[in-house]
Amino acid sequence: MPILQIKNxxxxxxxxxxxxxxxxxxxxxxxxxxxxxxAALCGPSGAGKSSLLKAIYGTYRIDGGDIKVKTTKQxxxxxxxxxxxxxxxxxxxxxxxxxxxxxxxxxxxxxxVAEPAIMQGMSPDQAHSIALxxxxxxxxxxxLHNLSPLTFSGGEQQRVNIARAMAAPxxxxxxxxxxxxxxxxxRQTVLELxxxxxxxxxxxxxxxxxxxxxxxxxxxDIHLSAVKEAEHV
Length: 233
Prior knowledge:
Helices cover 34% and strands 26% of the residues. By secondary structure, it is an alpha/beta fold. The protein has a five-stranded antiparallel beta sheet, with helices on one face. It starts with a strand and ends with a strand.
């Protein structure tokens, strides 16, 4: 069975500022992603690519369909899961790299990157060692390691975000434009790290706008259609 299997997924948004207009973002989505595979969501801006990733991560509740994730012990349907189950999945099974880094002020970058590994049960020393190696690979200067990423540039924050996910990779990884803010050198490093995850058996679903990135990753394209115009109900 695939690690991720989605059947007939529907998601709509009600636009209260536009007199209750309903926007049908995702209509009957079906897809699956297996271990050791990279699948890339493709489609025009507004097609619901980021919304789909957030639905899989449990951030958005869906209006219909199933999102089944296979764990070592069972298969969990995120569409029907309790909040505690979703939190456990995020800790152990599903990793998510968004376009933005949300951090606690005054917490240094090294601690932020190490935290997910520690939450999975790794010793603090080992987690910090892995975090240090990743920050070095992603060219975050050591003088910044103990500073809050809130003071970093957008590209530096994105690299910290990626390092945090890589420090504790899960069987299913979601990437929302992971190279969008990066220069060519760091972009290539991130693509190589993602390819390493694939080669280690991770199932990966992401948004990679550059066709060259998708070609490098040997990604399978999944096309989403444009969202229909809002309907008033």
